[in-house]
C-alpha cells in the first residue's frame, strides 16, 4: 500500500506553467519537484526565501579570490580611452605571459 497523500495548493498560473516547464526539462513530474523541495525543507529545518540570487559556493569563492587580487593590484587593467589602447595593452600582457 502506498504511503502517499494528496496536497492541494493554490498557486499562480504562470508559476505553475514555469514549474511544469522546469520539471519537463528535467524529465520529472511537478509532484516530484514539490516533494523534493518539501523533503529538503524538512531535512534542513529551514527555508530560504529571497529575491536576491544565491551564489553557488564555488562561484562565491572565486569572486572572493578576485576581490582579494584586485585589492593587491593583481590582474587589474588600467583605464583605457579607446579600444585600440585596450587591445594594445592586452597584446602586451599576452606576450608577457607567453615568455613565462
The average pLDDT is 92
Write the H/E string, N to C: HHHH
Distance between the termini: 68 Å
Shape: elongated
The number of distinct structural domains comes to 2
Uncertain runs with pLDDT below 50, 5 residues or more? Answer: none
Structural class: mainly alpha
Number of strands: 0
Question: What does this protein look like?
Answer:
62% of the residues lie in helices and 0% in strands. It is elongated, with a radius of gyration of 24 Å. The mean pLDDT is 92. The protein has helices spanning 13-26, 30-44, 57-72, 83-99. The termini are far apart. It is an all-alpha fold and 100 residues long. It has two domains: 1-49; 57-99, no CATH class.
Keywords:
2 domains, mainly alpha, 100 residues
Question: In summary, what is this structure?
Answer:
With about 100 residues, the protein is mainly α. Helix content is about 60%, strand content about 0%.
SSE order and pairing:
Blueprint (H helix, E strand, L loop, with lengths): L12 H14 L3 H15 L12 H16 L10 H17 L1
